[in-house]
Amino acid sequence: MSFHRFSPRDFATDESGVVSVDYVVLTAGACGLMLVFSETILGAFGVFSGTVEGELSGREVAAQSSSLSYNDGFDNGAEGWTGASATHVHGAGNVLGPIGGGTEVSRSFEVAGNGEPATFTFDVMSFDGLNGEDGIIKVDGVEVGRVSVTDGNATFIGSGTSDIDVSGFVTDNAVQIGGASLDPTSGMDSRTQVTITVNNPTSGTVDIGFSSTADGSTATESFAIDNFTATGLNNPDYTPPAAGDVTS
Q1: What's the predicted TM-score (pTM) here?
Q2: Which of 20, 74, 126, 205 is spaced 20 to 30 Å from 2 by Cα?
């Protein structure tokens, strides 16, 4: 057996075990960062879970503030809407509709007010044999825009006011989405995303409505609404912070 004598210089330059020490330091640092940000991360998951609940149930979701948001894909009915129900459309899934000629569909939303705008975003879908007919969008019973469709080609026409901003973007044009028939000879389909912002609601509610000029049976041509989202709604459970409270 032989022994090797280490000098102080040998000890200072020896790298054995350095990797293990580095990993201990890095792991400790990572744990410290997780402790610092855990409260923020948990809060974000709380908001996200509420949004998912709203999408699944079609109900208002608290946004941890003075206002609520509402999300609905109509997979669980059309609670609160009049004039139409949630219907499964072949190839397109659950939608609010069908909206044919003479149909008036609407829902009244209680808005937060206090100068806060209310914004509504949704898809207007057209199905099958529409030819020169329109899906009409209304706010408080007044037309603010329409989607005009000919052979599956959609065009958005906005007619907002100084207090109401309206925009529309055709995301799918002359494609086969669904409807009563998936046969291209029976007509093509379209999807238009519409956004309405009521900048200064003058009353406690905003009524969103839909109708159409379709002149045929809904079995051969129709409109429908999907992916409806509203923000800036009244939160009756919100309590303003007391004077002197610190908020973030």
Answers
A1: 0.71
A2: 20
